[in-house]
Amino acid sequence: MAVINLNQRKGGSSDKEFILLPSDIYRMKVTKAVVEENRFADVQKDGTRPQQLVLTWEVTQLTDEQKEAAEEAGEDWDTAAVWQRMSLYYGPIRDGGVSKLQAFIDQLREQGYLADFDMDLFDTDDLLGVEQRVNVEKYIKSQGENAGKPGNKVVNVLPVKRSRKATAAVRPGVVEEEELPF
To answer: What does the DSSP 8-state code read for residue 72?
Structure first.
């Protein structure tokens, strides 16, 4: 079983006012990473529910278009946050491929984060400060006390920088990493 920091068990709750972001890709960083019970999952034989990783992604930089849209909406998106939840399973899945957690961790490792990753020694604090481009989608919630209300969900997490291979393919002969506007 993995060694996981369980000091904080509350996920998406925050003292901040909730801001609903329009669907777009935002530059964000992980400001909170905790493990909590998945309240929407079926109860297991032992009477508990499976655990899930809950990441809080907070906006770190807006594009000019996003700044204009925020001004038009009369909202401050500079520190808006979204929550991402994923099962703590790290490995292959039935349909082929790998679990969401493994895909996420492997992507971070390819970028130089979590270089010495070991699932048995995984500490959620290792994810704090990780900055990525996060594809956020606005949707209508279908479960829980907020069913029928609008919300945000993380659709995909993308690197801030292109990989060296991708950069070389776009510009032959260049192997340095390049900042993307996102």
So the answer is: H
